[in-house]
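Page 42, continued from yesterday. The earlier attempt failed because a stray header line got pasted into the input along with the sequence. Redoing it now with the clean sequence only.
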Amino acid sequence: MRPDQFEFMRGFLKERSGLTLGDDKSYLLESRLTPVARKQGFKDLEELIDKVKSGNDAVLASSVTEAMTTNESFFFRDQKPFDLFRDTVIPHILETRAEGKSFRVWSAAASSGQEPYSIGMILREQAMKFSGWSYDIVGTDLSSEIINKAKNGLYSQFEVQRGMPIQLLVKYFDKAGDQWQIKTDLQSMVQFKVYNLLHDLSSLGKFDVVFCRNVLIYFDQPTKKMVLENMAALMPNDGFLFLGGAETVLGITDRFAPVPGLRGIYKKTG
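This time it went through. Structure tokens are written below.
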């Protein structure tokens, strides 16, 4: 890959997805995009990049962006955030939303759906407490391909083994050949949409809880600030935000503050 091509791709990906590539990340471009070049019939990666640079193939541009931004996910990833959702956020919601009996949860960058379905399982396990309530779980991702996989709710043995307690697997999935299909009642709990976090978020509506985990690490500081403040605009003053273990709002925005003693969870400051 020529230096000018690498610089072009850095700018292209930053503009389309917010992804910031360091000077030492040419290997990442090559590893992610070489299979795309092969699949699309280009003789090499340089030919693919030149085609993207021409600006006349929107489908290819989307394929390249999706290849660079699709990240691994698994059920109940890191576990602790889901424990905090169950033990800290749900009691707060039950107390503060008792009159309206409704709330909404957003899984931003939902990837192939494991995070929002994990949230759905937690809420199903708390079903008695939410009798008479209504709630929405919305999962979004930049990649239309990965959102389609999430909608299908079909996972390999390997995917369900990663983080999934066996009792929940048996309860919420059906065996489908050598794969596992999420049961219809859980599948219907989650709405999946293709959405770019760099775009106007207002059409998504308001959310009481936002999971935006392991996303900000790919953005530069101004982009992090923009995304966090746009999210804050969708949330009530007591809304909760979950970030990844290596992420923080400190030094980026004052619209959220850490919840004392609870790593990775933030409350809107008003």
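Notes: The first strand starts at residue 102 and ends at 107.
Reminder to self: strip header lines before submitting.
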